[in-house]
Amino acid sequence: MKKKRLLWAVLICLLCTGCAKSEALRNDWKTTPVIKWDSPAERWMLSENEEFSLKMKLSEFPETIFIWSDEQISAKKDAEEKLLIFGTPIFSAYFTDLNYDGYPEICADIGFGCGFCDEHIEVYDYYHDEKYVL
What we know:
By secondary structure, the protein is mainly beta. The chain contains 2 helices and 9 strands; from the N terminus they run ααβββββββββ.
């Protein structure tokens, strides 16, 4: 179900941002890798005092470390850390090149709220410093 929702979100993102050029629509999805930033199942069993954190480096951004914690995804370059995506919690995250500029965007399934919850997809284009909420 989440894969189907993510696929629809990606298609909507392409259409809404004007990136659905004819060459993009003809592109084979097998040539554009999707990197799943995996969240271990043990994450949900941590106590309140323990913090969840995953780090990833991508060859497209050699000086940047991407950090996924319980409530945010940030990018650390040199000594500066920049908040990219915020949510409580971030259920899943992926890197893929949605607009075919050669640099992957971060796609995340976000939850917000307590009681009445809002769940949506956020896409962050780190190279162009732009955020899309679907």
